[in-house]
Automatic annotation (TrEMBL):
HAMAP family: IspD
Native source organism of the sequence: Haemophilus paracuniculus
Pathway listed: Isoprenoid biosynthesis; isopentenyl diphosphate biosynthesis via DXP pathway; isopentenyl diphosphate from 1-deoxy-D-xylulose 5-phosphate: step 2/6
Gene Ontology process terms (BP): isopentenyl diphosphate biosynthetic process, methylerythritol 4-phosphate pathway
Keyword Cytoplasm: no
UniProtKB keywords: Isoprene biosynthesis, Nucleotidyltransferase, Transferase
Record protein name field: 2-C-methyl-D-erythritol 4-phosphate cytidylyltransferase
Family note: Belongs to the IspD/TarI cytidylyltransferase family. IspD subfamily.
Gene: ispD
EC number: 2.7.7.60
PANTHER family in the cross-refs: 2-C-METHYL-D-ERYTHRITOL 4-PHOSPHATE CYTIDYLYLTRANSFERASE, CHLOROPLASTIC (PTHR32125)
Catalytic activity field: 2-C-methyl-D-erythritol 4-phosphate + CTP + H(+) = 4-CDP-2-C-methyl-D-erythritol + diphosphate
Length: 231
């Protein structure tokens, strides 16, 4: 670990609409335990002593973000996102110093525990790292709805966020993937395509991504548990 304090910038892509939630507003603005999902998520990083700044990528047509007082914090910078998550992250990286480290986290993952975040922030390797959980369910490869075979789950992991990389390397990896028309589903996939080998940092399974309506109740339960633990 370098003795010089690294600049760490959290980037939260929040310009999606979350169509699978079937809600009247983008899912990041849905209410959850008295706040919006986005407010819970941003709050995870606001008071962390190692995080210098938070960049939130919102849609240019988003009428909701201006209503959130939390996003007016001097520690937060808003940028406009793009059509895809990768585009939004790339736009956020444009205002990040090359020597900084980018910590990318899903707007719809409000249940991240500080202990997992702290473990990830210990990584200081140019390959970067992501939070992930080992696959515990039996994994099937399919053709449509037909099973082709059962995968060996011993080498499979579920990728989570945050994902943590040097800003300049991640920016270059995304740019290269865009130019080659390669599919980028998360930051690690862009880094892999560029020849890097990110580390897996085992995280908690309650760091869920709110994707479907039933996920809201589970997230509310996890957040209530966390609040009771910290009383």
């Amino acid at each position: 670990m370098s003795h010089k304090k690294r600049q760490i910038i959290a980037i939260i892509p929040a310009s999606g609409v979350g169509s699978r939630m079937q809600a009247s507003v983008p899912k990041q603005y849905l209410p959850l335990n008295g706040k919006t999902i986005l407010e819970h998520t941003v709050s995870l990083f606001l008071d962390h002593p190692q995080i210098d700044k938070i960049i939130v990528a919102v849609s240019p047509s988003d009428p909701y973000y201006a209503e959130l007082e939390l996003l007016k914090s001097p520690k937060i910078q808003l940028v406009f996102g793009g059509e895809t998550r990768a585009d939004s992250v790339f736009n956020g990286l444009q205002v990040v110093d090359d020597q900084a480290w980018a910590l990318v986290h899903d707007a719809a993952r409000p249940c991240l525990k500080r202990s997992d975040l702290d473990k990830l922030l210990q990584i200081d390797d140019h390959n970067g790292a992501i939070l992930a959980t080992p696959a515990v369910d039996t994994m099937k490869r399919a053709n449509g709805n037909t099973i082709l075979h059962t995968e060996d789950r011993s080498t499979l992991w579920h990728a989570l966020t945050p994902q943590f990389f040097r800003a300049d390397l991640l920016r270059q990896a995304l740019q290269s993937a865009f130019e080659k028309g390669q599919s980028v589903t998360d930051e690690a996939s862009a880094m892999e395509l560029a020849g890097f080998t990110p580390q897996l940092v085992a995280g908690r399974s309650d760091n869920l991504k709110i994707t479907r309506p039933e996920d809201l109740a589970l997230a509310a339960f996890y957040l209530t548990q966390t609040e009771e633990e910290t009383k």
